[in-house]
Amino acid sequence: MVLTNVVALGVALALDLDFRTRDVGDTFEKAARIAAYANERLAAASRGDPLPAPPNLLADQSSLQVLFVVTAVSQAAVIAIVGISTGRSARDLARALGLHRFDWAGAWLPLAAVFFAYAGTFAWVELIDRLGIGWLEPRSTVPVEITRDDLTLSIAAAVTLVGAPFTEELFFRGLVFGGFSRWGFWPAAAVSGILFSVIHFDPGSVVPFFAIGIALAWLFRRSGTLWYPILFHFLFNAVSFSILAFG
User: Fold this and answer.
1) More reliable by pLDDT, 60 or 112
2) For the chain, what is the domain count?
3) 191 with 180: CB under 8 angstroms?
4) Residue by residue, what is the 3-state secondary structure of the chain?
5) Residue 173 belongs to what domain range?
6) How far is CA 74 from CA 29, 164, 192, in A?
7) Does residue 36 lie in a domain region?
8) Is the pLDDT of residue 105 over 70?
């Protein structure tokens, strides 16, 4: 994520974009900056000086589009990294991860797991709220500002609903969990779960995403196919994305 942001920043600067992927502060901070700008404008007008440029308060949609396109490229790179690191052909890797089959009879498992994952996340949020530890409350890693532009929203949807479920499960459950499985289920699940939670770079998501990482590893081990974790990941992201975009 950090590398993706750095690359996106470089691309944005090369395109002469003002790299702003988030709005400036809350409503009160925006109001304060607008008031300060109004005072500066009045003062400049009274002196006959050139008027100051208005403040940039909203996220730049072009920058957001660059960020998500770079993220999509990094997701494609993950597929290449997994393929190269395993030294297997695409067909052999797909068979090893159970991607050549899908057991519809057991598809209720990821559906039920998503329900319990959200129940657990809500319980965590309630606990954090009662304890008054605001910085441990999970926050969306997808900026709500994407909802202001249809193109940005579409690119973000493709990255979040298609790219992330496949590539993250391929890496964390297929490569990391699979690679450490010789240590046993729990050590391998813990390692992949820790990496999965930390990579989202949100302090509030570490605990719930670690638990979700364990659940995803269990789904993979239980079913023998990576499609179940991918389906879980898609459904979980779809609910979160829908709340962000339309809620």
Assistant:
1) 112
2) 1
3) yes
4) CHHHHHHHHHHHHHCCCCCCCCCCCCHHHHHHHHHHHHHHHHHHHHHCCCCCCCCCCCCCHHHHHHHHHHHHHHHHHHHHHHHHHHCCCHHHHHHHCCCCCCCHHHCHHHHHHHHHHHHHHHHHHHHHHHHCCHHHCCCCCCCHHHHHCHHHHHHHHHHHHHHHHHHHHHHHHHHHHHHHHHHCHHHHHHHHHHHHHHCCCCHHHHHHHHHHHHHHHHHHHHHCCCHHHHHHHHHHHHHHHHHHHHC
5) 61-246
6) 34, 10, 19
7) no
8) yes
Pair of tokens at residue 10: 């470089």
CA atoms within 13 A on the CB side of 232: 30
For residue 79, with 0-12 CB atoms within 10 Å meaning exposed, 13-18 middle and 19 or more buried, which class applies? middle
For residues 212 and 76, what is the distance between their CA atoms, to the nearest angstrom?
23
Half-sphere exposure of 221 (CA within 13 A, CB side): 17
At which residue do the structure tokens 């942001």 appear? 5
Sign of CA dihedral 209, 213, 218, 224: positive
- Flag whether 71 is in a domain: yes
* pTM for the structure as a whole: 0.86
The answer to whether residue 145 sits within a structural domain is yes
Q: What is the dihedral of CA 55, 60, 63, 69, to 10 degrees?
A: 170
Q: What is the pLDDT of residues 196-235, one digit of tens each?
A: 999 888 888 999 999 999 999 999 999 999 999 999 999 9
Residue 74, token pair as written in the block = 């990094």
Is residue 172 domain-resident? yes
Report the amino acid identity of residue 42. L
